[in-house]
Specification:
The complex is a heterodimer of chains A (about 240) and B (about 325). Chain A is mainly α and about 240 residues long. Chain A has twelve helices and four strands. Chain A has two domains: about 140 residues, no CATH class; about 80 residues, no CATH class. Classes of the chains: A mainly alpha (about 240), B mainly alpha (about 325).
């Protein structure tokens, strides 16, 4: 179970750092590795224009710098992100939720040498066993890889944009006002907002189950109204939206 | 409308604006944002902080809370980050900061050097007592016939490194390899402390065994002249990487009352400086090993090579450990 880290900001606000999932971290690592391999190949090809005396030295040194400097350079320049991490929307931050500095990033990435042994097993095991999914490099540098998904601001009024709402009767409106507490209203909104991310089966079953609760609670006696239509209809009433035409 | 809907309707545009400003500063320097927009960003961040506290009291809606939390987190990361990195003062870094760090952390260098020297003494003693033990102590790739045969081969045949391209190729291979070894020593020390000491000890054993083999075979002077010029920088570099690992390892495993995060953060600048010095020394050592160290006595007499080795070691010690008066300040 992932455990969020809490950071106290100077404004006395608790900020929650959400550890990134291991799948996304691994995918970002693969992407970054592919870029490193590509860059090394490019260096090797480009070195053909150099004099023979320094060609092998250039390839070895530049390859080494790319291999060891890639992550640190990007993590410091791009505020905790490498190209792979940016695509996968994850970010390295230090334990206080601030950007990593060059020394921290260097330590984190040098310890990767042990994390990738054997075939990444040590790092993977360490991340699996840690509640905040930290690999050994993260522990040694007090860093954390967090999810950087920027969610859209929820638009509750959009939920109410329903063309027809058979529930909009004085009786149901009165019952919604009198019987539904804030948590029950929240549940409706949360379910509507999450619906597009659910599988069809889960969506149907969840809406039917939740719908049944509200059906009983508000005494709705329309057997042909599906769970989802019922939930969305009540959410629309809660959001106070007018019926659109 | 309930309080929550009103809350979202009122604050939503401000959150959106804050998100847009944070997107702008993510890649561009803040100077491009201009003073007015920077002030606007600070104001919006403070108001988002208040909104987050208010939203937590008002609702349990995970999406809303997550959204405002992310926004405040991004703002916090931007506003409270360290000083924007200006151009690094390389001269000051290598001539003032690095030596000061080495003088301050000298005890870790001594501990690491003691581990290496102890290993060297054990390896040397074991082979001097019973030369047959050398094969058991050395990895297979290190066992390469009698030292005197190797000396005869190097001193009688043509120079192994007879062109600049060979020297640079071999040198770059050596320093990249040695840097990896140093990083491994650092990582082992940083994570387990004892692991770093063990690796230093093991490297010392290898050095002690090989040196004993050459001395027993009557090629002691050749060995010192061969290993000396690059070893004068390479061996201390491994020690410095090990010392940096011990410093980080102590902060991780024995942080004391400061707490682990504070102890780690305190150790990072010193670790960075020690590893930087280590990298510079290893590049120099690799280039020397790839060229000068490989030259036979016909090109460079042994005393000259040994003198160069002593000079390099003295110069390195002068760079990193001289100026003790400064430490007292």
């Amino acid at each position: 179970m992932k455990q969020r880290r809490l950071v106290h900001s100077p404004e006395h606000v608790l900020i929650e750092l959400v550890p990134a999932g291991l799948g996304r971290r691994f995918a970002a690592f693969l992407l970054d590795s592919a870029i490193i391999v590509g860059a090394t190949g490019l260096i090797s090809t480009a070195s053909a224009i150099l004099p023979e005396a320094v060609r092998a030295m250039f390839v070895a040194t530049a390859g080494f710098l790319v291999l060891w400097g890639y992550h640190t350079w990007f993590e410091v320049r791009w505020n905790g992100q490498s190209p792979g991490k940016r695509i996968l929307r994850i970010r390295v931050v230090d334990g206080r939720g601030l950007p990593v500095d060059v020394a921290q990033s260097l330590v984190r990435n040098v310890v990767r040498l042990l994390d990738i042994l054997p075939l990444g097993g040590v790092g993977m095991l360490s991340a699996l066993l840690d509640s905040q999914h930290r690999r050994l490099g993260d522990r040694a540098s007090d860093t954390l890889v967090v999810s950087d998904e920027q969610l859209a601001v929820p638009r509750v009024e959009a939920l109410g944009a329903r063309r027809f709402n058979s529930l909009r009767t004085p009786r149901v409106l009165r019952l919604v006002d009198h019987r539904l507490g804030i948590e029950e209203r929240e549940l409706l909104f949360a379910l509507c907002l999450r619906a597009p991310h659910l599988s069809e089966r889960a969506r149907y079953e969840l809406f039917e189950e939740v719908g049944e609760h509200y059906r009983v609670r508000l005494g709705v006696e329309d057997p042909h109204l599906s769970g989802e239509n019922l939930v969305r209809g009540i959410a629309s009433l809660c959001a106070g939206a007018e019926e659109s035409t | 409308m309930t309080d929550l809907e009103r809350f979202i309707a009122e604050r939503g545009p401000r959150w959106k604006r804050l998100g847009a400003l944070l997107d702008e500063v993510q890649d561009a320097p803040e100077s491009q944002l201009g003073r007015a927009r920077l002030q606007e960003l600070v104001l919006l961040y403070r108001s988002a902080c208040a909104d987050l506290n208010q939203a937590r009291a008002l609702t349990a809606n995970p999406q809303l809370l997550e959204n405002v939390n992310q926004l405040v987190g991004r703002g916090y990361r931007f506003l409270y980050r360290g000083r924007a990195s200006s151009r690094l003062d390389w001269k000051g870094f290598f001539l003032r900061d690095v030596p000061a760090t080495f003088r301050r952390e000298e005890r870790w260098v001594r501990v690491a050097a003691a581990a290496l020297l102890l290993g060297a003494a054990v390896g040397f003693g074991a082979v001097m007592v019973n030369p047959a033990q050398a094969e058991a102590l050395l990895p297979p790739q290190f066992v390469a016939g009698r030292p005197s045969d190797r000396v005869a081969q190097i001193e009688s045949g043509k120079e192994r490194i007879d062109s600049l391209s060979k020297a640079t190729e071999f040198g770059s291979y050596l320093y990249t390899h040695n840097l990896r070894v140093s990083f491994l020593t650092f990582a082992a020390g940083a994570l387990t402390f004892a692991g770093g000491l063990l690796l230093l000890f093991y490297n010392g054993v290898l050095l002690g065994v090989v040196s004993a083999q050459y001395i027993l075979d009557g090629a002691g002077t050749f060995f010192v002249a061969w290993v000396g010029p690059h070893g004068a920088l390479e061996l201390p570099s491994i020690v410095f990487a090990g010392a940096a690992g011990l410093l980080a390892g102590r902060a991780l495993l024995m942080p004391g009352e400061r707490g682990r995060p504070a102890a780690l953060r305190e150790s990072f600048p010193a670790v960075f400086r020690m590893l930087s010095a280590c990298a510079v020394l290893l590049v120099c050592a690799g280039l020397i090993e790839g060229s000068f160290s490989q030259m036979s006595a016909r090109s460079v007499p042994y005393p000259v090579k040994i003198a160069v080795a002593c000079g390099l070691f003295a110069a390195m010690c002068g760079w990193l450990f001289a100026g003790r008066a400064e430490r007292a300040r």
